[in-house]
Amino acid sequence: MTLPIVRLKPKEENRVMTGHPWVFSNEITEISGTPKTGEVVEVKDHKARTIGFGFYNPNTLISVRIFAREYVEPDQSFFTDRIQRALSLRERLFPNPFYRLVYGESDFLPGLIVDRFDLLFTVQMLSAAMEMRKDLIYQSIRDLFSAEAIYERDEAHARVIEGLPQVKAIVFGTEKTADYDEEGVTFRINPLKGQKTGFYFDQRMNRLFARRIAAKARALDLFSNEGGFALNLAIAGAESVVAVDSSPAAIENLNCNIQLNHLDNVKSVVEDAESFLGKSSSMDEKFDLIVCDPPSFTRNRKSVPTAKAGYGRLHESLFRILAEGGILLTSSCSHHIFRETFEEVIQKSARKSGRSLQLLKRGGASPDHPVLPGMPETEYLKFVAYRVL
Ligand code: SAH
Question: N or C: at which end does the chain have fewer Cβ atoms within 10 angstroms?
Answer without folding.
Answer: N
